[in-house]
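Hi all, posting the design record for the shared folder.

TITLE: backbone redesign
STEP: 1 of 1
STRUCTURE INPUT:
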């Protein structure tokens, strides 16, 4: 089969589209023909080089496709079924997995990080990771959903426990995870203040339901938040940007507010004045991916049309270098997809 592989770390030029051996599914696995996969920021980090990646390596976390083979010991699936994949790998038998807390499993990994990814034509996978999709979603839409919607759901619902009536600040509402967060926050009837980098993206964020949108390049986020909330601040800040916005995020919180973060796209080094942390009684929460239960939960809303996949554009899998360059140029509103 054809696959994207890296043999060394570096820029987009290290991404090779090449022939690799077909996977050989075991009797307790399914063989999936990949019809669409999606790019995430993780793919860029993996390509540049992060610990735990052994070379050569296939990147990619999100995929949807068709079942071509059902292992002898697998029931409940049939060839031809349209499915998406959970974007993660876990042992499925440890104490944490048994409790449904897969993202705390000692062997937990995002697909395409410490384990091989999905930017290829065929995948052999365990049935627990395979979820049928309705006809209302095409493969591109289906493959655009798993990582970002699961991440945003775990952050807002699992960790921050958002409630109707609260005000939520969603940073970078043009990114995949920001778009998911904005919609989930609206599903829970909160008031959303979003940030985006230009007028076109700001307008798209309004169309997805944001009551207010701040231009994070031209305006100071915390000053605008104070104005928009009658000086109160927000209940929840949805962070994934990191160093560039951290201070503004903290300043935007109301007393006893919650900041939840899943990333550090602009850098990992951030400071906090401990006097503010304790006197204002902030909660600072870390979040990483989510559980299988949460994935099924958020997908129910996607399949019902209550949460909408937003696809920016799609590239042939062979044009993986151009797709990574496009992602790094930050022009997109929504997910960048790949067609094997
Ligand atoms: Zn486990």
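Okay, here is what came back for every position:
SEQUENCE:
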């Amino acid at each position: 089969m054809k696959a994207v592989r890296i043999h060394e770390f570096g820029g987009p030029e290290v991404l090779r589209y090449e022939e690799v051996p077909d996977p050989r599914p075991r009797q307790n696995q399914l063989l999936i023909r990949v019809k669409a996969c999606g790019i995430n920021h993780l793919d860029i980090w993996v390509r540049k080089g992060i610990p735990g990646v052994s070379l050569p390596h296939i990147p990619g976390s999100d995929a949807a496709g068709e079942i071509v083979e059902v292992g002898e010991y697998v029931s409940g699936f049939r060839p031809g079924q349209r499915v998406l994949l959970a974007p993660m790998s876990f042992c499925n038998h440890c104490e944490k997995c048994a409790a449904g807390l897969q993202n705390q499993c000692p062997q937990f990994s995002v697909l395409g990080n410490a384990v091989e990814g999905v930017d290829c034509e065929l995948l052999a996978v365990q049935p627990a990771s395979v979820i049928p999709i309705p006809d209302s979603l095409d493969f591109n839409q289906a493959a655009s959903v798993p990582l970002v919607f699961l991440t945003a759901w775990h952050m807002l619902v699992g960790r921050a426990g958002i409630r109707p009536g609260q005000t939520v600040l969603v940073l970078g509402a043009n990114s995949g995870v920001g778009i998911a967060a904005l919609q989930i926050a609206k599903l829970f009837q909160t008031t959303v203040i979003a940030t985006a980098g230009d007028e076109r993206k700001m307008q798209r964020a309004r169309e997805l339901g944001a009551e207010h949108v701040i231009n994070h390049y031209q305006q100071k986020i915390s000053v605008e938040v104070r104005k928009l909330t009658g000086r109160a601040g927000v209940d929840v800040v949805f962070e994934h940007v990191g160093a560039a916005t951290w201070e503004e995020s903290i300043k935007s919180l109301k007393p006893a507010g919650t900041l939840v973060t899943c990333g550090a796209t602009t850098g990992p080094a951030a400071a906090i004045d401990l006097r503010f942390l304790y006197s204002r009684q902030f909660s600072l929460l870390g979040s990483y991916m989510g559980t299988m239960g949460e994935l099924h939960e958020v997908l129910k809303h996607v399949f019902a049309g209550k949460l909408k996949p937003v696809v920016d554009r799609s590239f042939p899998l062979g044009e993986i270098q151009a797709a990574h360059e496009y992602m790094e140029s930050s022009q997109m509103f929504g997910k960048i997809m790949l067609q094997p």
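COMMENT: Residues 311 and 335 are 5 Å apart (CA to CA).
Let me know if anyone wants the other runs.
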